[in-house]
Amino acid sequence: MLSRKDTLVLGVIGVLLVVAAACAIGSLNREVFGAKAFVSSYLHSLERHDAASALAMPGVVPTAANIPEDVSLVLLRSSALGSISDIRILDEAGQPDGSNIVTASYVVNNQPAQGMFRVKHVDNSFLVFENWAFVTPPMGTITVSVLHDTVFDVGTSGLIDLRTTHPKTVATVFGDTGTFLAFAPGAYTFGHTSSLMTAKAVTATIANPRAAAEVVVDVEANAKFTDDVQSEVNAFLDTCVTQVVLQPTGCPFGYQTGNRLVGEPAWSVLDYPVVSVVPGETGWVVRNAVAKVELKGELQSLYDGSVTPLDEIVDAPFNLNITIQPDRSLLITII
């Protein structure tokens, strides 16, 4: 049997163990399972471009009822994320409604920034370890305007088409705008790289939750696009000059005379036009390009019957409308 003294000692030890366990649990809840640790875990998921882990955290994704119909979730992917670094948790403050606001600092798009994240305690694991959720989803919005196309890329995502992400976009429109949810904080670099077009990179920064940013992706014809049109125009001219008439059918040049042509005329291209593909109001265009063609032959005067050589250099002006067809081939129309 235990003596009274032994019982007292064991009681004291028990109390000390309970106090130690409580202290340990409290420490774990502060350092590992607390509000600060919860927000830190979210931020470090973004730092390592782990969108799946961030999305799995309670309260990160807005409920369907809270997402406007015209806002897309397509940017909530690892390949869209940019650089975030130097994450530090600065403060935690309880709120009258029982939630906590955690303040963090970080560097995003090479600029220092701070954000406040509202979280709430939802339940406990194993009865003691705290679980948290975001009260307000840590998201911002980015409005992307694409000029001269409906397609853009962000990060390493590959091409994203507004006609898919925003079904109300008109399929034939020459540019449109869409709004996207984005993780906060984050730096998102937009551009366009495809077989025929390119756009300079532009970065949108979401420094903190509920922030909004706008970017314009100005799509331009790339060198291949211009080279393809140049090749088509050159080939067209080469075909035109094979016609042995003074007014080649369907061609942007010809020759008129009040005398009679002797024999057959011979056309040749002296200078091909220098093509510059630029955006028009509803599609791609080439304007005011000029080729030089030469006409040789003989003319007989209707007045006295004399024959003189014909050697004329004629301008061939080009104005083109260009449509990129679904198979990425070019439909070129001379106007």
Q: Which terms would index this structure?
A:
3 domains, 335 residues, single chain, 5-stranded antiparallel sheet, rod-shaped
Chain-wise SSE layout:
Layout: H1 4-31, H2 35-47, H3 51-56, E1 71-72, E2 84-94, E3 100-108, E4 111-125, E5 129-134, E6 139-147, E7 151-154, E8 159-161, H4 162-165, E9 175-183, E10 186-193, E11 197-206, E12 212-218, E13 220-221, H5 223-240, E14 260-271, E15 278-279, E16 284-300, E17 307-324, E18 330-334
Parallel strand pairs: 1-9, 6-12
Antiparallel strand pairs: 2-3, 3-4, 4-5, 6-9, 7-8, 7-10, 10-11, 11-13, 14-16, 15-16, 16-17, 17-18
**Biggest sheet features:** 5 strands, antiparallel
The average pLDDT value, as a whole number, equals 89
Which stretches are low in confidence, meaning pLDDT under 50 for 5 or more residues running?
15-31
Q: Give the helix proportion (percent range).
A: 10-25%
